[in-house]
UniProtKB/TrEMBL annotation:
Keyword S-adenosyl-L-methionine: no
Record's keyword terms, sorted: Transferase
Coiled-coil annotated spans: none
UniProt KW Transferase keyword: yes
Stored InterPro entries: Acyl_CoA_acyltransferase (IPR016181), GNAT_dom (IPR000182)
Domain N-acetyltransferase: 220-286
Origin species: Treponema saccharophilum DSM 2985
Pfam families (UniProt xref): Acetyltransf_1
Name this protein carries in UniProt: GCN5-related N-acetyltransferase
Record GO terms (molecular function): acyltransferase activity, transferring groups other than amino-acyl groups
Length: 316
């Protein structure tokens, strides 16, 4: 099994975007992990054998077609709030000629939106890489849990680790942190909406939190921790039994104070969506209660659509 480090992820993404040449990942004891053009390999020759590269050391990269690139542009444009820039980008996409070049030209005139696009694009492509890596881990079947299920992907990025929620080991910690988070949220609502409105909203939030607390023991999901193993946040969802779970509903998602604005909630959603795509869950429902504008853009980028008071993602 090879490690999926930040430099390797960057190499993979760069290769995925190259539509003129095929690249592969080589992972060997002698050469380490690197992404190289497939044409540079000739493992049938004596020289290649001497280099320590074997056919089993070569991995095909996740596919990224021009249609994926177009869908990414369209998802980003639709995620923007109603504005002239959004209309201009959608107009470029509907033109049918010089789409990629003209899309970039529009972004150049709007540096802030261009910066948001590059972040959006990286998250989208990283999600594809992580999904591919999770699939490889399952095929290797190196780690087994007590009930025989293959352990899910655990990635370390920017000093934080994202791993599968362990009900037995972590339910107590998650419950404690959720209570603290909920109490602070109630105080914030009362401060933001003085009088009866704040009390009513706080009560509504309390009911929602009580439901989430009641479902922690049977929930699934992912947890984020620091490099020193301190709890940072989590995303939990509820679903049916393993042989019939075609849909899932968000139970809770929160990040501790002091770690906001680092993209942790975004990574939790991205990791969760990648997991669901590979485990037979076809629909994911997320209620819009106090959904932030920035996180809403993330959901749209992951393929969610707004239906009444829910964000819904369908996986086929």
């Amino acid at each position: 099994m090879f490690p999926l480090s930040e430099p390797v992820i960057s190499e993979i993404i760069f290769a995925m975007e190259n539509q003129t040449e095929e690249f592969v990942l080589v992972a060997s004891a002698q050469k380490g992990v690197s992404v190289v053009p497939f044409s540079s390999l000739s493992y049938d020759s004596d020289s290649a054998q001497d280099s320590g590269i074997r056919p089993e050391d070569i991995y095909s990269l996740p596919k990224w077609f021009s249609s994926d690139g177009f869908n990414l542009l369209e998802s980003f444009a639709k995620s923007l709030c109603s504005s002239p820039v959004r209309d201009e980008l959608l107009g470029v996409l509907s033109n049918g000629r010089g789409v990629f070049k003209n899309f970039k030209n529009v972004l150049k005139n709007h540096p802030d939106i261009e910066r948001d696009f590059h972040r959006f694009k990286e998250r989208k492509m990283r999600s594809r890489v992580e999904e591919w890596y999770a699939s490889l881990r399952e095929n290797w079947s190196q780690e087994k849990s007590a009930d025989g299920d293959t352990l899910s992907l655990c990635l370390i990025s920017d000093g934080f680790s994202f791993s599968r929620y362990d009900r037995k080991a972590e339910s107590g910690c998650v419950e404690s942190e959720l209570r603290i988070f909920s109490e602070k949220k109630e105080d914030e609502l009362k401060a933001a909406y003085p009088g009866d409105a704040g009390v009513l909203l706080a009560d509504f939030w309390n009911i929602r939190s009580s439901c989430a607390l009641g479902e922690i023991g049977g929930a699934d999901g992912f947890v984020c921790r620091t490099a020193s193993d301190d709890f940072v946040g989590c995303l939990l969802f509820s679903s049916g039994p393993a042989d019939a779970r075609e849909s899932a509903t968000l139970t809770t998602c929160f990040v501790k104070d002091g770690f906001h604005g680092l993209g942790i909630a975004e990574r939790l959603f991205e990791t969760c969506v990648s997991f669901m795509r590979g485990h037979g869950i076809r629909t994911f429902f997320v209620a819009d209660f106090f959904m932030s504008e920035s996180l809403e853009k993330v959901l749209f980028g992951l393929g969610f659509e707004k239906i009444h008071s829910f964000y819904v993602a369908r996986f086929f």
